[in-house]
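Fill-in record for N-formylglutamate amidohydrolase.
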Amino acid sequence: MDRVIITCEHGGNQIPTSYRRLFRESKALLDSHRGYDPGSLTMATALADACRAPLVASTTSRLLIDLNRSIGHPQLFSAATRGTPTATRAQIVERHYQPYRAQVERLVGQAVSRGHRVIHISSHSFTPELDGKVRSADVGLLYHPGRRGEAEMCARWKESLAASAPELRVRRNYPYAGKGDGLTSHLRLRFAQRDYVGIELEINQAIVLAAGRHWAALRRVLIDSLGTACAR
């Protein structure tokens, strides 16, 4: 039997008091898509409620440390924290990175040990334009194409979305490659294909920031279509 787990690595732009001095001139950056993923926490919460699934979420800005990057990745720390003393960076990892990662891995491990397959949905959003290039999707479903369970799950989810909301532009492994560095890629190394299905859900921030009926309708259709995909 499948168990759904929802996570949100970039749910907010808060900076803990101990490190606010590093971001005194960075309010605009913190409020931008570089500081967090607008709408990702709202979507994650809605999915967790609908699926009655555990939710692990962070509201600390990715500019302190990016929870969706591996230790050693060049983008783990931002320009504001990359140049801090080694002890400061180690403290950030210990206080904010490791507990989050450990909690997610513990939940997956517990479900697998009880004989369940885990469907992990990591909720994100993406800026509609990056480096002058407009992104041509409303929703992205990211997965590792070499893992059959993930490929099949995303194909079913995309099919269900097409049936219920044909006007939505849904693309797989867009605007990023699903097999790239991230929390899902880390968990793929920890758990076998038969036990773990990791999918990053990416939503266009143009829909989120416009708010209103379209954003509410998108949340509803994503929830319903995920339920359909999981039931098949």
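KEY FINDING: Residues 157 and 229 are 5 Å apart (CA to CA).
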